[in-house]
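Worked problem 6 (solution included).
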Amino acid sequence: MRTFRTIALAASLALSVIPAMAEPIGIYEQTTGKGPLGQQWVGGWAEGWNITEWFSDVTIDRNTLSYRYIAGGSWIGTPTQTYVFGTRAVKAGALTLNIDLSSNRQWDGSSTGMYIWQGEPANTTLLAGATGDALLSTSFTLNLGLGEAWGFMAVSGSIGDDLAYTGPVYGSFVVTDPSASGDVPEPASLALLGLGMLGFLAARRKA
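Solution. The predicted structure is:
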């Protein structure tokens, strides 16, 4: 019953086209909003385990996609978190992006990876590791088909979900493309993307 409610909520969020601000959401839930390139985005998160049922702030706002794990205290450790943001190509061809990356400082026994993905969230390219609160600027070119899914992913936390280690998990992708149009995907296409991301996150949970 809980799984059904989560899927239903994710589907309704994916159909929504209202702007989203910082929104605490639970594991395997999603939020939507108008974000980078003037397009509609879907954002969600997963983790290796969720013993405390805590939430994450997942933000889609203007040119920024950000995440922050709301942990319950250092005694519980910080498990690995996976955050996925996705949208769909509004036109076919090359898309060159300027990307400013920022994430938390690593601690002993932790790891961070910030990625761009295309087609499906499992098809990733590493952009950066932990930036230690510094800003790292890079560029990346995607060759997209019309309506093809793409986006960003961040994975951060204790290696192996080891309770002996703890620390904050947060970060952001600031994405710009001066040549991009303001076109947005149809709501139905965004809904399909949202459900696809939910399936990916659920698959990571089973893994």
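Discussion: The mean pLDDT is 78.
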